[in-house]
Amino acid sequence: MKHFALIAALFIALAGCSDDSDSNNANNGNNTNNSNNSNNANNQNNREPLEGCAGVLSNSTELARPIYDRVNACFSATGVECAANDSDLATAQTALADALLEGCSDEDYATLQSGEITREAWAARVAHFHQLAAKAFSRRFYGGPKGVYLAEQSECAQAAYEGAVTGHLEGLDLAFYCDNADCAEPDLKAAWAVVADGIATACGEEAFGLLASSTAGVARTGMDQTACVAAAMTEEALGLPCGPSEQGATEFTQVRLSQETYDVKCGDGSDYYFHYKLGDPTKVVAVMQGGGVCLQGGDCVGRPDRLFKADDDMPVDEMFADSEDNPFRGWTMIYMPYCTQDVHSGNGTTESFVTNGEEFVIERYGALNVRNTLKYVRDIIWHEMDYTGGEYRPEAVTAVFAGISAGGLGVYTNHAWVLDELGWINTIAMPRVWLSISAPPPFSLASLLGIKRDAWAIADSLPAYCNSGSCVAGTTFIPIHADRLGETPLQRWMSFSSQADTTQSGTTYHGSVFRWTNLAREYYCTLKDTPNVNFFLYANPEVFQSLIDGAGTESGHSPNWEYEIDGATAMDWIWTGYNDPENVRDYVDEGTLVQLSQDAALTGLEAYEATEPFDCTVTP
């Protein structure tokens, strides 16, 4: 079968990954083991066995293989991933942890970690991180936790999984023959590029197109897993981009992510900036800014310059309020500006438009900006947890992953990555004022984003089980995505929106608020009983788009947050979703929109002409 040839090719390719200068050294006959020469250090034919704990860590990459084999066996036998209490998987993890404890003395361990985590906890965490990587690979290539690709693309899926695991484990082994970032990171990036190309070749264009839209996306996410398993092994993480970082700031602080170090960029080519504040490291509120979308040259050229920069955006959001009535006060907070006009879904592509004889270039890096921001803060959280008497594990973090308007669509395109790749499985998705209601083709948002699938590499953002551009339509996406939620009680989809919204109706090409409102009501009735999905939909005719601050209001809160349905505000509802997720309910108000439509001539509110009542039961 194809995947056996792929694996053999990967071993050959990984054996000689290096940059040009290292290759020249090798060609000049310098074949001694020198950790500063990445070619010689990483060439399997020239390696000498590492001694002590370093040797154990290097050898542990193969000792970890039973973990990956067991994850694969569960999918092969049942079509879904292993149960949380799978005894064979637990046995494989215990065997690896025992081998690490036996081979690494207390003295050895002191050179690997300087936090508060014990040697026993460290060994168990290394084994656990291998399991997390195995789950990330299987979910990506088998189509999520329920393996939707296995029925029709089993050969490609199997080739991709086994090729990724082989490249990942060999890459970890390779990393331990490097002792600095100049060696490890470039070589592993090159190795993962080989792995991704091999997977694409083994699968063929059609099948690979189901897995991702680019080999760059496969290589990028694979590199993330290798880097984090390495970080679990040793705190220094061999210079790789994962692991405990510096002590975090406890007041809102702006961070610049340079293009030279991170895979980020704003629409005008400038560096990306975000704000964060470290609070409780186990509790996170992350919010993506809104700001529309531009799809074509004439549409993009007319946008203000500030929409393509992130250096002057400030963290203003109701969930960030430093007030006693904010239940999220004291959490770690992350604010991610929006500067790419790609609804936070671009994966490192460049679009060029010619309008009125002039070229206009826009960088589409929205998803990469979000993901690198979260990884940056993840490493601060990792440091905080390891150095305060605990230990960082992704599942120990509980989070609310929110976005406003265009940021709400960013929730659609990035929530699965947070769950499967970042490993924060206890994360609520909360799109605010974005229901993703598609108008009829050809001007529907779903159709247009389908066209942008390749131009923005959007399939690298969407989950494997729903990665066509048209899958961003809520009535398509939510049932498919909801079917994989529920792994923990906090895996919920909580959608907060007005039922009368000129911005949503205009952005999604409906042309009329009342038509959009009618579709919003049909949308709710279609989705209202979907497991793990809840709605707070208010019918306030005076607020057409969500306000994110309280400027000018006596209470300091925006009208949308104060609006009550059956005695509950949106903040009450969100907090219940976090604090008591199994008992959270929908709050949906019929309101006065139908009456306003009937009284349009009297009130002058023609926007509500022909608004229909709900065709299902809503909140009393």
Helix % is 40-55%
DSSP, total strands: 11
Low-confidence parts lasting 5 or more residues at pLDDT below 50?
Answer: 1-46, 546-556, 601-605
- Give the termini distance in whole angstroms: 60 Å
Alpha-beta classification: alpha/beta
Counting copies of identical and different chains, the oligomeric state is single chain
Largest sheet: 9 strands, mixed
Average pLDDT across residues? Answer: 84
Strand order of the largest sheet: 1-2-4-3-7-8-9-10-11
> What proportion of the residues form beta strands (DSSP E)?
5-15%
Rg, nearest Å = 25 Å
Q: What coarse outline follows from CA principal-axis ratios?
A: globular
- Tally of individual helices: 23
Outline the structure in words.
With 620 residues, the protein is an alpha/beta fold. It is built from 23 helices and 11 strands. A 9-stranded mixed sheet has the order 1-2-4-3-7-8-9-10-11, with helices on both faces. It has a two-stranded antiparallel sheet with strand order 5-6. Helix 15 (406-420) links the parallel strand 7 (398-404) and strand 8. Helix 1 packs parallel to helix 9 (150-175), helix 6 packs across helix 8 and helix 10 (181-203) packs across helix 11. It starts with a helix and ends in a 17-residue tail after the last helix. The model is unreliable at 1-46, 546-556 and 601-605 (pLDDT under 50).
